[in-house]
């Protein structure tokens, strides 16, 4: 697929067909992240591939936040419920970790964002859909413990599978709204 087409066709997919992602495609997704540029070539991402009950357990950890919390949670956290249901719908979940290192926070986060975008664009190229999930932040400690890496930082997750929806492109700002000029 032409790169411009891949970029234009990328959408956040939250509904997936009940169809496994082939191991060859999973390898290509990982390879796309591996080849990504990173600040000072640190390559700070560590990826964990979860399927079936393992990824469903991550979703359940996210849902448990609402079932076990005796305090009223802020409204912005409600999206975590929908993200958990998306994870359950998807056949594949990639957890994206990094080693905690305050000196490298900004560079690592930007680099990891680029690696995640490589995965999302490769997904389109492979006729898959994906959505980048940050709602794992509210249960990061529990998910890291479940995954067996309590000393790592869970930066994000990516749900991937064969799309069962075809959402329209969401509105984007005009170029003159995102390109600024140097002030005198």
Automatic annotation (TrEMBL):
Family (UniProt): Belongs to the nitroreductase family.
Domain named Nitroreductase: residues: 7-162
Lineage, broadest ranks: Bacteria, Bacillati, Bacillota, Erysipelotrichia, Erysipelotrichales
Cross-referenced Pfam families: Nitroreductase
InterPro entries: Nitroreductase, Nitroreductase-like
Protein name, as recorded: Nitroreductase
Species annotation: Breznakia pachnodae
The entry's keywords: Oxidoreductase
Keyword Oxidoreductase: yes
